[in-house]
Amino acid sequence: MKYTSLSNFIKGTYGYSNGEYLDVFSPLNGEVISQVPLSSAAVVDEAVTGAMQAFPAWSELPIKERVQVFYRYRNLLEKYFEELAALISEENGKTLDESRAEVSVSIEMVEFATSLPQLCIGEIEEVSRGVECRSTRYPIGVVASITPFNFPNMVPNWTIPNAITLGNTMILKPSEQVPLSSNRITELLTEAGLPEGVLNIVHGGREAVEAICDHPGIDAVSFVGSTKVAKIVYQRAAASFKRALCLGGAKNHLIVLPDANEEMTASNVAASMAGCAGQRCMAASAMVAVGEVDSIIDRLCEEAKKIIPGKNLGAIISTQAKERIEGYITEAVAEGARILVDGRNIRVKGSEGGYYIGPTIIDQVTPDMKIAKEEVFGPVLAIMRVSTVDEALQIENSSVYGNAASVFTQSGSLANYVAERVSAGMIGVNIGVPVPREPFSFGGWNESKFGSGDITGKSSIEFWTKLKKTTTKWNPEARTNWMS
Ligand code: NAD
Is the pTM of this model over 0.70? Predict the structure, then answer.
């Protein structure tokens, strides 16, 4: 085992395990690299106590003092950039370039948080003669962040910098499949001067998540993961009257029109379906081909064949996930779909134990097939053929998800027509992965997100704070007393 068993991080100390552990595998070679604690409700309780104890002192600091930690943390992310990227690749399986891109986005997230003192100033107005009303933002209290496997460094950095800069103290429950990056984040934040108890890490799975949802000391829960679990967490957190924002899975449609630029479309669609081995909630999963676009599809297949597992294509997170993805492909073919590029039965020389699937493109998929409707979460693109833009929109609109959608065309009016009618929160025009960069916020629609507002950007300020409205009258000559 390359790394020793991990510990929870509570009240500034590594420890607090209840003695149960799970092996952590590297998807690159299938080897056990560490062990992660499977924490019980008692451990969650310990972390909540730590976060509650830290809250008064941390929340009373002026925001301009709190944010200093994140200026230093940002520089540490840069200082340890290569090491952090290598750790992501090791535990998640993505390529080193993809891991570097992930750390770069984390840095951008922290940079956004450092602008919060400028962004979240309150408002003041004379609402009646001699009477002024002022609004001020306050932290909510102890908050929790539950994160998925696919971005071990970035998703924790979606929530930690904003929530903590805004004065909250936090319990992070990382994915048990990729727990190493989170512990490294706590080391860097400690080096940056974050006081003990402000960020606590509780490792584990379902039991820890349920204890977080139920704990009366936690005031808000954010979740990023599958729709199935997002629904459970949203309902369970709300049952004990917590604020909750739960981001779920996706089935992103790329609508390709006949006038689309061939080269730009093919390269974008290929990168979108296969980047991070398709394990992105923003990945292209379904392509809706409108009319005669065969030359674009031919070019797309050529592009896909340049994406080589173990070289510029990373691994799948686990053997179970690999089997699930291959099952979708096999079932679609059995149902009559036509496979254009087949990524099954891949062996990567020198990484024989790794969990790899090559890029896979399946044509003649019909909207009723499982592969057309469900989230596959692998480097697999299902192509559906339609004759009109409205038919394409009908397919996109019928999805239960609504994270992202893209349109490829050279026509501004058609792009607008589609962008206005797709039912998704993040839209791309000639862009396959339309992730809004900061300060625009990240969040989908429909069953891709439960709760109001988005998880990053300016929209997240609302989620991580509560508003106090103070009405003041000092001068007795102001006679207005409109409420009496
Ligand atoms: P997951 O739902 O399996 O796990 C997410 C978290 O929930 C983990 O911390 C896990 O320990 C916990 N968990 C798992 N099962 C649970 C249960 N039954 N009860 C309580 N907690 C449970 O998701 P994953 O496989 O880690 O991540 C992939 C999923 O995340 C995909 O569906 C992807 O689309 C989604 N995702 C969404 C976004 C977004 O912004 N919408 C971003 C990244 C990933």
Answer: yes
Q: Which residue of 22, 207, 226, 228 sits with most ligand 1 atoms within 8 Å of its CB, as the best mutation to test the pocket?
A: 226
Q: Which of 400, 388, 389 is nearest to 448 (CA)?
A: 400
Whether the Cβ atoms of residue 199 and residue 172 lie closer than 8 Å to each other: yes
Q: Where are the domains of the chain?
A: 8-248+448-469, 252-429
Tell the CATH topology of 252-429: Aldehyde Dehydrogenase; Chain A, domain 2 (3.40.309)
Strands (E), 40-161: 123-128, 131-139, 142-146
Residues facing residue 95 across a β-bridge: none
Closest CA to 442 of 152, 263, 222: 222
Cβ of 225 below 6 Å from ligand 1: yes
What amino acid positions are annotated as catalytic residues?
281
pLDDT digits (tens, 9 = 90+) for 57-115: 999 999 999 999 999 999 999 999 999 999 999 999 999 999 999 999 999 999 999 99
Cβ(235) – ligand 1 distance below 6 Å = no
8-248+448-469, CATH topology level: Aldehyde Dehydrogenase; Chain A, domain 1 (3.40.605)
